[in-house]
């Protein structure tokens, strides 16, 4: 299917990866993983043809149809949502357009009649009669209702445009699917739908994702970008972690044994090389030394932050109470008479489809928005700390990482601030980095650093895993699960919700569903609960 031969990429003196040789075979689903900045996106761009490698070749079998998830928000603005999806199969779309044009003619010549026959044959061969039904099915699966299918793309907001573009690439049923972060902007229900769809797709896939559960569910192989190499492993993400950790530990152990053996042999050579009776033995030992190989252990680009949340003071029984809270924006009723009480030690996942009001609920709870009616009451001992979804707007661009963090506690000493920033992977001079040039992942880690400094006993987080790599997500998930205070969070990361939540609050068009228990337990009973 796809052959990668002697592929190398470098930027000046910096080597991203070198002499990569891989084969992506028919029917397999490959998860492309690695730390932020390791080169995943560059490698994907090379496969797509959007980036030229320094050396080496990428060969795709001729005749294969390749589908690429593009994220150009404006390219299809003049087309309807349904037309945009149909364009995912360009050959069929052209036949459809020409067929429509021919049938619109008031009269046909014999030649035009013959052309219609050819078009009908091609249309049938490409399943044209079921095309619009399949396109609509994809859109509905991705959370775009039928009434939106005839609207122009220009009327769709960013997150929903990306869903249409995802439907477009799936519609073509390509032999090879290249998907960069397909779960971005999807809610948990839609991600589950996508997982099932991809499991039923027979083509080859290469997928970049930071969603551990998605990788475990969908992928048959992992392609890891690390150590300036790209390596392939059979199995899902959890199997890869276990296998790669074991392989690295084995390599370190082998090198340690070999170094000890070399030291022992060198000692013998040093003591007996001048001794005539043992000169042959010393020469033999020297030859043994020359045969022993010490494998190169390259530094990993993977670094995990160290996150451990602590509280300045204990938390009382009552944390926060919402009594008949309502909030509207114009004619849109987002929150309708919401009643909710959250107690000490609870880990509450707030779920719901995109646009249902999850962020509005947190903003009202935190006082960022005023409710139109109803009250929000915090317990006297509650000290909430907030990780906002739009944290780029929270951090000003005219300061440094260190100064921004210091602004939340002017009395904190330099060692404390540097220690927290170091745990969040801002080392040495990086603490003086301008906030204007921070990446999405760095900004998210800086927000977590603020929460570590403030030591609140209630952590409120809105989509905290956006922009974080897998190592950071795992560290955050572990820290939230171990935190002794209360956690209230919105997330589309299935693994985070599964690992952390002890209570599920789902916002639905019919009202709020409140369930005490894990996410897996909730899914088992959800249909009954939502209908009730």
From TrEMBL:
Superkingdom of origin organism: Bacteria
Domain spans labelled ABC transporter: 2-252, 320-532
Keywords recorded for this protein, A-Z: ATP-binding, Nucleotide-binding, Repeat
InterPro entries: AAA+_ATPase, ABC_tran_Xtn, ABC_transporter-like_ATP-bd, ABCF_ATPase, P-loop_NTPase
Gene Ontology molecular function: ATP binding; ATP hydrolysis activity
Name of the protein in question: ABC transporter ATP-binding protein YbiT
Species of origin: Sulfoacidibacillus ferrooxidans
Lineage of source species: Bacteria, Bacillati, Bacillota, Bacilli, Bacillales
Gene: ybiT_1
